[in-house]
Specification:
Chain lengths: 308, 471
C-alpha cells in the first residue's frame, strides 16, 4: 500500500509540474496571439476603445458591418459578437471594456436561446473566452455562477487550455488563422443553403412554450444596468423564417424599464423568405448584412440618440 | 455518479483510502462499508428510487432462499421473476406498451388509452434487474447455492462500480470474492485497475465525447445535412458508442480491481469481429452471456431442429433489442443482428476459414453491417432511421461532407487513430509494442503521463452522460 501511495504521489507531482508549465506556456502564447479568433478575443478584452460597440452571438458577428456604421455615423465602431455565445460572455466582455472606456452607443443583438431561454452549452462556450481574465473583478463570479468549482478547476493549466491549445499553436507559430474579420465583423459570403431551411418552421413558436433561464435573465438585467448611462439599443436582426414575437414579451418591459430601445427586424417583409439575403434560416449573408446595416443606420439616425 | 465526473474524482480516493483502513480480516466490515458507499452513491440520483433497488434485492434474495424448498418451484420462480421484473416493466416499458396498444386499438377503430408516465427511469434498472434475475435462475437451475447472508447479496447487486452500466456480473464470479478473506492490498491489481481507469477515461472523454459533438449535431438534424455527412456521422457514432460503453466498462472493472475485485470482461475489440456472431462474442459480453444462459439455452439453444434453432436466435436478439429500450428502433436493431446470425448459420459462414485478405474483407463487411444497425439504435423513430439511410443512398444530394475543422477534426483523428492502434495491437500483436505494460518504468510512466495530458487537454470535460446509463 505504501509503495502504491508513494508512486501515485510522485506521478501526481510530475503531472502537476507539467500542468503548471503547460499553463504558463499557453497563457503566454494565447495572450500574444494577434490573429484569428484568439487575437480578436484578446483585442476585445484588452484594447477595444470604440464609440459604438456591438454585442451578441453569431447573428451579431455576421450581421453588423462595423466599417459601414463607422463611415456613416462618423463614430468608431467594433463588432464584439461571438458565434455560439450569449449574454454571459457579452456581459463579461462588457465588464472588461468598461474598465478602460465608456462607449457612446451599445447595440445588443438579442438571441433568445442565448440570452434568456434555457440551454447550457452556450454558457460553457462563452466562458472559455474569459478564462484568461478569471481573476478580474466580476469575471470570477461568472465562473462561480456557472459551476461553483469551476474557478478551482481553472487553476489547472491543462484544463484552462483544454481544446484550444492546438488552434493557438497554429495561430502563434504558423501565423495561420480563420479570420478575425473587419473591425470584428465576420460576414458569411455564401448563397442560401436550401437544405438548411426547415419547412413550416417558426422560431420560438409560443405554442411550444418558453423555458426561461434565471441565470441568463439575471445577466441580461445586469448588462442593461451596466449600460444605464450609455445609449443602448436592443436589436433583433432579420430572419428568413421570421419569428413568433411572443418570445420578446418578457424582454419588452425590461427595455421600457431601463429606457432602452428595442428594434425588431425579425418579421420585416423586406427580408422574410428573401433568399438573396440569407445563408440559412437565421443568418444573413454578406449582401443581407450590408443591406440590414444600411437600414439600421437609417433607424439609428431616425432615433437621433447619438446627438441627444 | 459517473466516473468522469469531478465528484467521483474527488470522492474515489477517499473511498479507496477508507476501504483500506479497515483491516483485511474484517471482511464483513469491509463489505458493509462498500454497501453503504454503493447505496449512498445511488441515492444521489433520486433518493426514492433506492427503494426499488432495495425491493429487487429483497425479492430475489428471499425467492432464491425459498425456491428450491417450494412444492411448486416452477410456479414459485415464475412468480418471483414477474415481481422482480415489475419495476423494470413499469418504469421502462409502460409508455411503450400503452402507446402500442392505443395505436393498435385505434387502427381497428377503438379508442382506449391510459395516461402516459412522465417519470425518470431509475438509473441502472436494466442492469441490476438482469443481474438479480440471473442469480435467481442460477439458484433455480442449481448452478449456484442461494446466498444466506443478505449483506453479501445486497452488495453483489448494488456494487457501485457496476450498478449504473454493468458489466452484468454472475453471482458465481462475485459472491465468492465478497465472502472470502481478501488480501489487505494487492499492488499489481491496483496498478492494473488504475491503468484500466486511465485508458477507459481516454476512450470516454477523448474519443467518445469528442465524436459526440459531430454526431449530435448531424444526426438529430439530418434533414439539413448531405448523405455523406449522415454516413460520416453514422460511422462516427459506431466508434462513439464503442468508446463510450467499452470505456465505461473498463473504468468499472478498473475501479473494482483497485478495490481488489475481478468483474466480468465486457468488451474484446468488437470491431475486429469477422462475423456478427463473432461480434456478439466481443460486444457487451456480460449481456450476451446472460442472454445465452437465460434465454437462448432455455429455449433449446442449438440442440434442436435447425428451424427451431433459428427461431431461438431470433427471439434472443429481439429480447436484446427490447432490453436496450422501449422503442421499435431497438427491436429492429436486435432483429437485424438476429437475422444476420441466422444467415451466417445457414450459410456456414461462421466456420469458414479465410486468409488474411478474406479476414480483412469479413471484418470490413461486419463493421458495415454493425454500422447499418447502429443507425436504428441511434435514431428516435423508425421513420427517422429510414430517412437517414435514404439520405445516405440518395445520389441527388451534394457529395459534400460537413467538417468541423478546429478543434474537433484533429482531436477526433488523434483519438480514433490511438484507439485503433491500441485495439490492433491487443488483437494481433499482444506481446509487442507494450507501452502501458512496458517493463521499462520510463516508457510506462511516459505513457501514463501522455494519456493524462491528452485527457485533460483534448478531452471533452463538460460531458456528464454515458449512452448506456440510459438503458
Amino acid at each position: 500500500m505504501k509503495k502504491f501511495i508513494y508512486r501515485t504521489a510522485i506521478f501526481l507531482t510530475i503531472l502537476i509540474v507539467v500542468d503548471i508549465i503547460w499553463g504558463l506556456a499557453f497563457d503566454k502564447i494565447e495572450s500574444r496571439i494577434e490573429i484569428g479568433g484568439t487575437g480578436r478575443n484578446n483585442y476585445i478584452c484588452n484594447q477595444v476603445s470604440d464609440d459604438i460597440l456591438i454585442f451578441g452571438s453569431s447573428r451579431a458577428e455576421s450581421h453588423y458591418n462595423a466599417q459601414m456604421m463607422m463611415d456613416s455615423l462618423g463614430l468608431s465602431c467594433y463588432n464584439c459578437g461571438e458565434s455560439g455565445c450569449g449574454i454571459v460572455l457579452n456581459y463579461g466582455r462588457l465588464l472588461l471594456l468598461l474598465e478602460r472606456q465608456t462607449p457612446k452607443l451599445v447595440i445588443y443583438e438579442l438571441t433568445p436561446e442565448y440570452d434568456y431561454l434555457k440551454g447550457e452549452k452556450d454558457i460553457h462556450k462563452g466562458l472559455t473566452f474569459l478564462k484568461n481574465y478569471r481573476n478580474k473583478d466580476g469575471i470570477n463570479s461568472l465562473f462561480q455562477d456557472f459551476d461553483r468549482i469551476e474557478p478551482y478547476k481553472l487553476t489547472s493549466g491543462l484544463y484552462r487550455h483544454n481544446s484550444s491549445f492546438f488552434k493557438n499553436i497554429i495561430s502563434y507559430f504558423f501565423n495561420l488563422s480563420f479570420g478575425s474579420g473587419i473591425r470584428g465583423f465576420r460576414p458569411i459570403d455564401q448563397p442560401l443553403d436550401t437544405m438548411k431551411i426547415k419547412k413550416d418552421y417558426i422560431p420560438y413558436d409560443s405554442n411550444e412554450g418558453y423555458d426561461y433561464d434565471s441565470m441568463k435573465l439575471k445577466y441580461f438585467r445586469n448588462f442593461l444596468a451596466k449600460t444605464q448611462d450609455i445609449k443602448t439599443i436592443i436589436v433583433v436582426s432579420p430572419m428568413w423564417y421570421g419569428q413568433d414575437d411572443a418570445v420578446l414579451d418578457s424582454i419588452k418591459p425590461l427595455c421600457n424599464q431601463e429606457g432602452v430601445f428595442l428594434l425588431n427586424y425579425a418579421n420585416s417583409p423586406k427580408y422574410n423568405h428573401k433568399d438573396q439575403f440569407f445563408v440559412n434560416g437565421t443568418h444573413l449573408n454578406a449582401t443581407g448584412a450590408d443591406e440590414f446595416t444600411r437600414d439600421l443606420i437609417k433607424d439609428i439616425e431616425g432615433l437621433n440618440i447619438l446627438h441627444k | 455518479m459517473f466516473f468522469n465526473s469531478i465528484k467521483f474524482i474527488i470522492l474515489f480516493p477517499l473511498i479507496f483510502l477508507l476501504y483500506y483502513v479497515i483491516p483485511a480480516r474484517y471482511t464483513k466490515v469491509r463489505n458493509l462499508f462498500l454497501l453503504s458507499v454503493s447505496y449512498l452513491l445511488y441515492i444521489q440520483w433520486k433518493p426514492v428510487y433506492t427503494l426499488i433497488l432495495l425491493a429487487v434485492t429483497v425479492i430475489t434474495y428471499y425467492s432464491a432462499l425459498k425456491v428450491n424448498d417450494s412444492r411448486h418451484p416452477k410456479r414459485f420462480i415464475t412468480l418471483s421473476v414477474i415481481f422482480t421484473l415489475l419495476p423494470l416493466l413499469f418504469f421502462k416499458y409502460f409508455n411503450f406498451i400503452n402507446d402500442s396498444i392505443t395505436t393498435l386499438l385505434s387502427a381497428v377503430g377503438l379508442k382506449f388509452g391510459l395516461p402516459g408516465l412522465n417519470w425518470a427511469i431509475p438509473v441502472g434498472i436494466s442492469f441490476f434487474t438482469f443481474q438479480s434475475l440471473g442469480y435467481l435462475w442460477d439458484v433455480y437451475y442449481k448452478r449456484q447455492e442461494p446466498e444466506t447472508d443478505f449483506l453479501t447479496y445486497a452488495l453483489f447487486i448494488s456494487f457501485f462500480p457496476s450498478i449504473l452500466s454493468g458489466p452484468i456480473n454472475k453471482a458465481s464470479l462475485v459472491i465468492p470474492q465478497l465472502k472470502r478473506l481478501r488480501p489487505y492490498f494487492d499492488y499489481s491489481k491496483a496498478v492494473e485497475g488504475l491503468k484500466m481507469l486511465l485508458w477507459g477515461m481516454f476512450m470516454k472523454v477523448v474519443v467518445a465525447d469528442r465524436l459526440a459533438l459531430y454526431v449530435d449535431l448531424v444526426l438529430p438534424d439530418y434533414d439539413n445535412y448531405t448523405g455523406l455527412s449522415c454516413l460520416t456521422a453514422s460511422i462516427l457514432y459506431t466508434i462513439q458508442i464503442y468508446a463510450d460503453f467499452a470505456g465505461y466498462s473498463l473504468m468499472a472493472i478498473g475501479v473494482g480491481k483497485m478495490l481488489g475485485f475481478e468483474l466480468t470482461e465486457n468488451f474484446r475489440r468488437p470491431y475486429f469481429a469477422t462475423s456478427i456472431t463473432d461480434f456478439w462474442h466481443r460486444w457487451h459480453i456480460s449481456l450476451s452471456t446472460w442472454l445465452k444462459d437465460y434465454i437462448y439455452i432455455p429455449l433449446g439453444g442449438s440442440r434442436c431442429s435447425k428451424s427451431r434453432n433459428y427461431w431461438n436466435i431470433f427471439v434472443t436478439f429481439a429480447v436484446s433489442g427490447i432490453w436496450h429500450g422501449a422503442n421499435w428502433t431497438f427491436i429492429v436493431w436486435g432483429c437485424i443482428h438476429g437475422i444476420c446470425q441466422i444467415f451466417e448459420r445457414m450459410s456456414g459462414l461462421q466456420k469458414c476459414n479465410s486468409g488474411l485478405f478474406g479476414k480483412t474483407v469479413r471484418i470490413i463487411i461486419t463493421f458495415m453491417l454493425v454500422n447499418f444497425a447502429w443507425i436504428f439504435f441511434r435514431m428516435p423513430t423508425l421513420a427517422d432511421a429510414c430517412n437517414v439511410i435514404g439520405r445516405i443512398f440518395d445520389p441527388s444530394l451534394p457529395m459534400t461532407v460537413y467538417i468541423d475543422l478546429i478543434p474537433n477534426l484533429p482531436f477526433s483523428i488523434i483519438g480514433i487513430v490511438l484507439l485503433f492502434a491500441k485495439d490492433l495491437r491487443d488483437e494481433f500483436f499482444p506481446n509487442r509494442f507494450k507501452l502501458l505494460d512496458s517493463k521499462r518504468l520510463l516508457i510506462r510512466w511516459a505513457t501514463y503521463l501522455l494519456l493524462m495530458i491528452m485527457i485533460l487537454s483534448m478531452g471533452v470535460l463538460s460531458s456528464d452522460q454515458f449512452i448506456y446509463a440510459n438503458f
